[in-house]
Amino acid sequence: MRTHKVRIMTITGMLTALVCVSTMMIRIPTPTKGYINLGDCIVNIAAWLLGPLYGAFAAGAGSALSDLFAGYTVYVPATFIIKGLMALASWAVFTQLRKKKLSVPACIAAAVTAEVIMTAGYFAFEAFLYGSFAAAVPGISGNIIQGVGGIVGSVLIYEAVGKRVTVLSERDQFN
């Protein structure tokens, strides 16, 4: 049992680092002072492989670290929460649809759900940050583009590699 926990923690740490690196590796700046990145691909993969708790941690911490390292410090707390919620929602949708033996549709629906949360979450945060819903509207387009990339990328990666990897059993996800 102890070895299993060490394995889970190690894989969680590795996916946390991979979320951070994939977010920072390819950054396409947007006119709204943000950037489009590949981190959402790994946010979904982490959720699908690690489950709700470890997946949310890897997604939130890895994404928040990338904001910190990139100088977007004001976004760190919001990113931690938004990306963690993305992973939770993605895992929940994926798990329910996967029970019905729907692999690709499960991935697509889960990733779409996560990206809707990301777009809405950053819209709400930026509206609060700028003190205006109107000021937050321009960020929606960049987040949608990033979301589409996250959906396509996570589905392709999972179908190519992820579904062959079993990290946690259903029992382990809440222990």
Structural commentary:
The chain is mainly α and 175 residues long. It has a single domain (2-170), classed as Arp2/3 complex 21 kDa subunit ARPC3, CATH 1.10.1760.20. Helix content is 76%, strand content 2%. The chain has seven helices and two strands, in the order H-E-E-H-H-H-H-H-H. Strands 1-2 form a two-stranded antiparallel sheet. Strand 1 (28-29) and strand 2 (35-36) form a beta hairpin. The chain is globular and about 45 Å long.
- Show unreliable segments: none
Series of H and E elements: HEEHHHHHH
Number of domains: 1
Using only CA atoms, what is the Rg?
16 Å
Remind me, CATH topology? Arp2/3 complex 21 kDa subunit ARPC3
User: Can you tell me the CATH class?
Assistant: Mainly Alpha
Mean pLDDT: 90
* Main sheet: strands, sense, barrel: 2 strands, antiparallel
Shape: globular
Give me the side-by-side strand order of the main sheet.
Answer: 1-2
Helix content: over 70%
The secondary-structure class comes to: mainly alpha
SS elements, strand count: 2
